[in-house]
Amino acid sequence: CRVVVLISGSGSNLQALIDQADPGLCQIVAVVSNRPAVLGLDRARRAGIDARVLDHTGFANRDSFDRALIELIDSYRPDLLILAGFMRILTPAFVAHYHGRLLNIHPSLLPKYKGLNTHRRALEAGDGEHGATVHFVTEELDGGPLILQSAVPIAADDTPETLATRVQQREHLLYPRVMNWFAAGRLALQNGRACLDGDL
Ligand code: GRF
To answer: Does domain 2-109+134-150+171-188 bear CATH number 3.40.50.170?
Structure first.
């Protein structure tokens, strides 16, 4: 399974994907960042993976950026495209182009807390638990079919930062597992649902 990963920042999830990819199944063939000089690009290079920058600030609008992004990604002929801290909203045309082979990880127990600042919002709501979710990407932001979720407890003295760290540790377990399922042909988007091993 040829995998392309999109990032915008530190790439700790990218590192987990690199470290835990099943070598017999997955090959991460490129990492693309919309921001230059981020740590995630160094992580890719260190692993011998093509590290490419497509700076969105050089484009007149979202459509032209997404068209160029598709062209760059497709030059690597990916079977799977993984969003790992990619902080850009993608156009419907982009999402449609990768239908069924586009994954995202979101730092909340979806459908709770779509969008930004999820840790602060979970704390402000007085929730007892928080977590992370891997899902297929559809047109609705953070609203695609859920694949796998993991919950962590919220402690009384948590800050958004301490909570983020705890959630990220779970992200680093969830995402590689889902990538390897997909690469093994065990996971598919069928009739708007995420199906594991054909039918679950
Ligand atoms: C993660 O918390 C992920 O859930 C969110 O962006 C963050 C990316 O972190 N979508 P990193 O770049 O993988 O370290």
So the answer is: yes
